[in-house]
Amino acid sequence: MKRVFSIGCMLLAGALLTVGTVRAASEEPTIYVIQKGDTLWGLSDRFLKDPYYWPNLWARNPAIGNPHFIYPGQRVRVYPDRIEIEPRTVSPGTPAVQRPSEEPVAERSFLVSGSEGFLMEKGLNPAGRIITTSQNRQIVGEDDIVYTDIGSVHGAKEGDRFSIYKKLDAVSHPVSNVILGEKVIPLGTLQLTEVEEKVSKAIITKSYREIGPGSILLPYRDKRRQISLKAADHDLSGYIVETQSGNNAIGEGDIAFIDLGKKQGIEPGYFLYILRDVVPDQQYADISVEKLPPEVVGALVVVQSGENTSTGLVVKSIDTIYRGDRVEARTNR
Fold first, then answer.
1. Measuring CA to CA, which of 84, 136, 296, 311 is 20 to 30 A from 305?
2. Boundaries of domain holding 39
3. What's residue 292's pLDDT?
4. From CA 54, how far away is CA 299, in angstroms rounded?
5. What are the start-end ranges of the H helices in the chain?
6. pTM, full prediction
7. Distance between CA 111 and CA 156 in Å, rounded?
8. pLDDT over threshold 90, residue 63
9. Where does a domain end: 75, 104, 133?
10. Which residue among 169, 192, 224 closes a domain?
């Protein structure tokens, strides 16, 4: 007998395919009925213990249709080796059947360590810099003494804390070549111990990487936090413009910077597909082929957003991801 499950949590369109390997008791499929607030991402975590499985399923099931089109009342047939979307038979507004025994799936979240970095866009200026170190050392670390160009004239006082960053090269857009900002990576934190009018003395309270003179300072805020996964409320399309490591090729667990920010409606927690365009080979086509469906190569979750750029954590990759690959979120239609 077919089983019907209802799942509770926020709807994430792309997570539809995470349930592809749920084991059926027989050749009869398991039937899932989607209702408002459901997420199959959560179902995958619940039954497969692997919420990131969906790209692997896509890779092995090229015939699966557009995964964005799921909606309340829709029935999904889950086999051991594939997923089939049943034609819609439920009228809009008709509630799906819910089993009382089913409990809501816990909200999915990601721990952000604060070591991800970001693109410093034009107009975002540092609070100050480390201008020298104790004994003029070029490299310092935790518990070492440094001096900054932040003083009481800037509103600073003893006990104020700042995050320490290293500014790297400017980042240009892979398509337009427009400069988007300068890549910065976190080095550690410091606390002011003595404050004069224009300068101050400070102690390094935490060190992630080597710290030296010239390092820039920004007001401190606790970077270690949980980012809750959520669906975009409007369509988004952009590009991976740089990677934290500087490597052209990245994969799961790596950090990427994208050309979408608050002005484009990006929020931390948004889930974006990573896509690559497929170039048609006209010599084998009898008709002119201008565009083919893009290849899905992975997904990322936005962990920090600036005005026009954001930092993303790659949560799944089924192929090598490159600078210049597209990112996209599509709302249900």
1. 296
2. 4-104
3. 75
4. 10
5. 40-47, 54-60
6. 0.68
7. 31
8. no
9. 104
10. 224
